[in-house]
Amino acid sequence: MAYVVDIPLAEPSPPGSVKPSLLKLIREDIACVRQRDPAARSQIETILTYPGVHAVIWYRIANRLWADDWRFPARLLSWFGRFVSNVDIHPGARIGHRFFIDHGACVVIGETAEIGDDVTLYHGVTLGGTSWFPGKRHPTLEDRVVVGAGAKILGPITVGAGSRVGANSVVIDSTPPDVTVVGIPARVVRPQLGHRRVVGGIDLDHHLMPDPVGDAIAALLDRVEFLEARLAHMQRRNRDAGASATKSPNVTAPWSPMESDNG
Ligand SMILES: CC(C)(COP(=O)(O)OP(=O)(O)OC[C@H]1O[C@@H](n2cnc3c(N)ncnc32)[C@H](O)[C@@H]1OP(=O)(O)O)[C@@H](O)C(=O)NCCC(=O)NCCS
After folding, report:
1. Measured from the CA of 164, which atom of ligand 1 is nearest?
2. Pocket residues for ligand 1 (CB within 6 Å)?
3. Signed CA dihedral, 211, 213, 218, 219: sign only
4. How confident is the model at residue 249 (pLDDT cuts 50, 70, 90)?
5. Which residues contact 32 (CB under 8 A, 6 or more apart)?
């Protein structure tokens, strides 16, 4: 079977390297759901009713088999995971800690995709390849990336840490960290700290609340500073005009403070 002898992209771990415990990884995947989905009410509910979580569990096991060179059982288990969850994660993909797929439907993650820690995907996301050549051909998502529903991220590009991809966007170029990208092809619409709305989950940046009173005070302070500078300028001009009038008594001062109010 051709797919069993794929190019070995998910290298077996180097000898001596310690793999994190499978159970610990799965526990983290389950626990993170309650932080990112306000609808999740309990751990048991998450385990039983979240297809995205089921998909990740099947992936974690299949990925262990894949990394230990059990390629066919890994693919078979992956197929089973896809069958029950409608999420297709290639067992060779590399996925970090606390990975969450919300809603779980129609997500596709290709063989050479790499995903950092604390990444969230919504339904309909594809991390796809753009070539048929073996080697790195799927995207890399760095830590804390959030990908909106239906977004497609294509090719061996990198989505920078903390970035957000808008729903239904198509990302074909690498993006810097901490930005929001939207559209087809996706473009940066703003740096992460410039927005206030949240992608479905819980906004943990509570310290970034809008502050209209603070903004108004800042505008007033700017205005006062401007008026002070203007007054100082007028006083200087007045002083200079007064001085030249004293020198030549026939010349009247070109400007009087009383007329300056609107100037
Ligand atoms: C992109 C997103 C993360 C919002 O980011 P944000 O930084 O708060 O940006 P804003 O909502 O202020 O929008 C910024 C600009 O991008 C546009 N925009 C936002 N989302 C967009 C999208 N998915 N596609 C195209 N344009 C989009 C807005 O119209 C706005 O344009 P403007 O500046 O010309 O007015 C959010 O719109 C999104 O797509 N979230 C995904 C949510 C999701 O998939 N939920 C599934 C739950 S089941």
Report:
1. 3
2. 103, 122, 148-149, 164, 166-169, 180, 182-183, 189-190, 195, 197, 199-200
3. positive
4. low
5. 98, 99, 100, 118
pLDDT in tens, 22-64: 999 999 999 999 999 999 889 999 999 999 999 999 999 999 9
For 250-259, give one letter per residue: b (16+ CB within 10 A) or e.
eeeeeeeeee
CB 87 within 8 A of CB 126: no
Instruction: Say whether pLDDT at 4 is over 50.
Output: no
Nearest to 34 by CA among 201, 162, 161, 188: 201
Distance CA 156, CA 136 (A): 6
**The two three-digit tokens of residue 124, written as one number:** 């309909």
This prediction's pTM: 0.71
